[in-house]
Amino acid sequence: MIRAFAIVVVLVSFLGCGKEETRTQELDREVENFISAVDISSYPEIETSGVRFYDLENDEDGFLSILKGNGVNTIRLRLWVHPKNQHSGFDEVKEFSRILKTYGFKIWLTLHYSDTWADPGHQVPPSRWQGIGFTALKDSVYQYTARIVNQIHPDFVQIGNEINSGFLHPMGSVDNLHQFKELLNSGIAAVRNNTTSTQLVMHYAGIKGAEWFFKQIDELDYDIIGLSYYPLWHGKDLDDLRIALQQLSAKHDKNVVIAETAYPFTLGYNDWTNNVVGLEDQLILPEFPATPKGQRDFVRAVKEIVLNEAARGIGFCYWGGELISWKGKQAQNASSWENQALFDFENKALPVLREFQLE
Description:
The protein is of the alpha/beta class.
């Protein structure tokens, strides 16, 4: 039995206010605070194509309503500083966050501090911040982050995205450890000085090297350790994930969350854009084949590790749940992720969505 699944025991009413009632209340709070998240950063662009979505009963419904009805309680969004178009820029993310809040979703922002994708291999400063001095760069981080907090009011903020190698290279490279931490502290200070409700996440991609990384930033004032976990890049042994979550939480006295994960429901394609995952040797076999059931079982396994075996595990986020083939079946510049989305090739909700429920 998953430890965070709250069951209201009828007998409590006859036993009075005792240990059973106290434990039930604790479980209710755990369920309420558990993060069942999806990253749907591309949805504002996808929505403009007019695609229709269908729920698990094959009835047409709104995309966000389907997520909400299946237990998703948090939406994660990337934020780029000056993207080449409006997508994932400040104005779009601010407006989308406003809409999401009307559905009751919590907002989790991942600040890339770049005009495009930031990850362990790419941490390019925004074009307008390039060529400035270190003091000016720290100030830019502070002012930019403070603006986000004050205007969007997120529940969770990442200072950087998958910052294994640092961010804002070269000044913020981990090779320049002191400068890296000063830049992180600028972002942290911007959050702490402007809100008491937003929690700070430090996000590392994978398991290998995670202990060394979090040891380097141990003195920084943040709340949550976030890890990406994709079998393709981070290993196929879920025991390694379990051990990493246990050890990181214990050594650093932090809550832990799976900030990104995903898994295919097929190895097929629905457009002519090459997919990231398309081979059997990229899977965890035989436990998790590329089928709707295999996808669901994988997410359940990850969720149960967070719930049952990480003492301070507080949730997980599924990345790319919206990335259907929205540009058509012959598009060569569309989704490289449609076989890992939360909807099938007919835009019908997949069984994996049931794993976002805590009951």
